[in-house]
Amino acid sequence: QVQLVQSGAEVKKPGSSVKVSCKASGGTFSTYVISWVRQAPGQGLEWMGGIIPIFGTPYYAQKFQGRVSITADESTSTAYMELNSLTFEDTAVYYCARAGVKQQLNWFDPWGQGTLVTVSS
Amino acid sequence: DIQMTQSPSSLSASVGDKVTITCQASQHISNSLNWYQQIPGKAPKLLIHDASNLETGVPSRFSGRGFGTDFTFTISSLQPEDIGTYYCQQYDNLPPGITFGGGTKVEIK
């Protein structure tokens, strides 16, 4: 059963960047879409984008185009999400999640434990 | 982009009650609709995929149905451990995209 373990909480200043990692263990990594979903405090879920590690080409939600970069390292079974030009509105818990069927976007299972990113001056 | 309208945004029901949540897509999405439960402080948990397929280990009191634009999620007999927020989620691969509904917070009366 695959498990996703994310990096720890971050505090960043407005205008800076943050990079969150998501390491997979115990299952297949390279042929499934790994997505990033964020949740602002008290708000709903928002998909940011995803990547199939074996192909390496990411795709992004329109809202985040140009500001987010999703990458993956097959050798370490780790995916990364880097968000640039942070504002206070980027304060959120960021989750990684694996798709349920190979090489397709569909449902998310499992999820990482979440990484709190706080943007504060 | 496909929009997902979920209702109600919150509900309060008694233990044993039947609870129904609806999700409407802004355009036809076939059966590309999933449901999650989220407990505060935890990651969402997948309950149902492709509109009506119950995940292994999920109690049979949970069910989903629908096709096209209109979907429903039902808890046949609400239990105390069912409190949390429920989200619908649609997916598309051409082009790739995911949208979540706004969520329904379920509380015990």
Describe this structure in words.
- Chain A has 121 residues and is mainly beta.
- Chain A has strands at 3-6, 10-12, 18-25, 34-39, 46-51, 58-60, 68-73, 78-83, 92-99, 108-111, 115-119.
- In chain A, the strands form two sheets. In chain A, strands 2, 4, 5, 6, 9, 10 and 11 form a seven-stranded mixed beta sheet that branches.
- In chain A, strand 9 and strand 10 (108-111) form a beta hairpin.
- Chain A is globular.
- Chain B has 109 residues and is mainly beta.
- Chain B has strands spanning 4-7, 10-13, 19-25, 33-38, 45-49, 53-54, 62-67, 70-75, 84-93, 96-100, 104-108.
- Chain B starts with a strand and ends with a strand.
- The radius of gyration of chain B is 13 Å and the shape is globular.
- In chain B, strand 9 and strand 10 (96-100) form a beta hairpin.
- Chain B has no helices and eleven strands.
- In chain B, 0% of the residues lie in helices and 55% in strands.
- In chain B, the strands form two sheets. In chain B, strands 2, 4, 5, 6, 9, 10 and 11 form a seven-stranded mixed beta sheet that branches. Chain B has a four-stranded antiparallel beta sheet with strand order 1-3-8-7, with no helix packed on it.
- The chains are: A mainly beta (121), B mainly beta (109).
- Chain A binds chain B through residues 35, 37, 44-47, 50, 59, 61-62, 95, 97, 100, 104-109, 111-114, and chain B through 1, 32, 34, 36, 38, 43-46, 49-50, 55, 87, 89, 91-93, 95-103.
